[in-house]
Amino acid sequence: MAPIGLTDMAITDFVVNQRHGVKGLVDVISPKTLPSCYIQLPEKRVTTEKLIMEAATTGKSALSTPMIPVIDVSDWKDPSVAVEICQAAATLGFFQIVNHGVSVDEQNKLRAAGRGFFDLPTEEKKRYWEGSSVSETAWYMTSFNPYKEAKLEWRDYLKFEYLSDQLDFAATWPTVCRDEVVNHSNRMKPIGRKILEILMKNLNARMEEQTLMGTLRMNVNYYPECPDPKLTVGTGHHCDINTLTLLLQDDIIGSLYARYGDKWLHIPPVMGAIVVNIGDMLQILSNDRYKSVEHLVMASRFLSRISFAYYCGPSYDSVIEPLCEVLENGEKPLYKATMYSDYMKYYFARPHTGSKTIESIKLP
To answer: Where are the alpha helices (DSSP H) in 70-216?
Structure first.
C-alpha cells in the first residue's frame, strides 16, 4: 500500500473510516512524529511530575508513599486475604492478586493469541469492525469513541461478550484467539466470584449473581509503539462502569496508572499477577464504601503492549442502587437507582473526557 498523506483528515480517514486502526498506521507509514490528531490537549496530558512511580509491595508497608497491594490468594479462606481485599477496595480501589491458580504459561498463551489477532491481515480484522462485524458478540475498534473524540487514543481493541446460556456464542469469534479467550473467561469467572463474595460479605449482603456478574465481557487492548508518548495517551482517564475488572497486564511494560489525589499512581507489572479494580456499580451498591477509581494507560515509545480486561457486570436489566444492607442504620443513599443498560449507553456515547459517569446519578 502506498504511504498516505500525514494530514489530520487523511490519517483519521485511514485509521477510522478505512478501518486500519492505529496498528495499521504504524505498520504502513511508521510515523516518526506523532500525528496531530493523536496529540492530546495540554490539560489532558499526563506529565512526569504527576506520576508516582513505585514498586509493588506484598504485605503492609511502613512507607508513606502509596503502593498497590499484591495479595497472595493461595488460601482464599485465610481471613487476612479478605481483610486485605476489602481494605484495598475501600481505599485505592486497586490491588493485585498472585497464586490465583492461573499459570504464567496460560497467560503467555493468551497474550500470544491476542497478538495473533492484531497481526492478522487488515482485511481479516476489518470483518469484525464494530457496526458491521460478522459476529454479534465480538467487535474490533480503535481509540475509544473515534467518531466523537476531538483527539484519538493510541489504542486498538477487540472486545467480546460471553453468553454462557448459548452453547455456540463463540462460534463466530476469530479462530486465531477464540479458544484462549473462552478459556480465559472460564478461569476468570470463579476468581471474580470469590472476590465479589468477600466484598459482599463485608457489607453483610448476599452474593446476587445477576446483579454482580450477569454480564461478562472482555477487551483485548493493543497499544503499538508510539513516536512521542508524552503527547498522547493509550487509554484516556476513566472509571470502569461494571462491578469488578480483572486485568492481565503486559508482563514487561508498566503503563497503567490509577488516580491518587491529583497524581497518578503506577501499577507495576508483577509476574503472573492479575490486577483487580472496583467499578462504578460496586461503588453505588456499597454507597461509596468501595471506590471506583479513575485510571489510564500511557503509550510506550519502544515496545507494543497488550492487555486483557475481563469485566464482571450486572445483567442489562438490573436496577442498581445502594444496597438496603448498607442503609439499614439510617444512612442516606448517595445515588439514585439506575438501570445498568441505561448507564452503559450514557458511558459509551461519550468520549473519555475525564468526567465521572457516576456523578450523573449522584443525589444532591
So the answer is: 79-90, 104-118, 122-126, 178-202, 209-213
